[in-house]
Amino acid sequence: xxxxxxxxxxxxxxxxxxxxxxxxxxxxxxxxxxxxxxxxxxxxxxxxxxxxxxxxxxxxxxxxxxxxxxxxxxxxxxxxxxxxxxxxxxxxxxxxxxxxxxxxxxxxxxxxxxxxxxxxxxxxxxxxxxxxxxxxxxxxxxxxxxxxxxxxxxxxxxxxxxxxxx
Length: 166
Prior knowledge:
7-stranded mixed sheet; 9% helix; mainly beta
């Protein structure tokens, strides 16, 4: 079984979540885990919107996720007091490399791979491999192989931690 942080109250739907040292977040009650997940060291999650992390998601170190942004088109400069909310969803079987930044309002599609250092500024389609700033499509995963592995239940985190979902 995986070790869980108990000092902050996150919304756990499954007990198989590993969060490494240095995790910082604002509004922890807005973070949902819907299955197995691994979050590398020094993750930072900020904002007032929801962050949903689905099953079998692996996130490398030093990730930054924003779920809200300042309103620079408002009544003051450089921005006003209104926070613009944008929920973030990370679909199942996603691998996010180190030093990735994710802006408010995006969905990272099922089976996507996010290269180290990428800046995610828009939705990422299923089984895409993306990288860069802003992130661009590098290539697509083999969807047939992806679906075969999914049907077989070949999920890395479940295998690694030796338990199946109830």
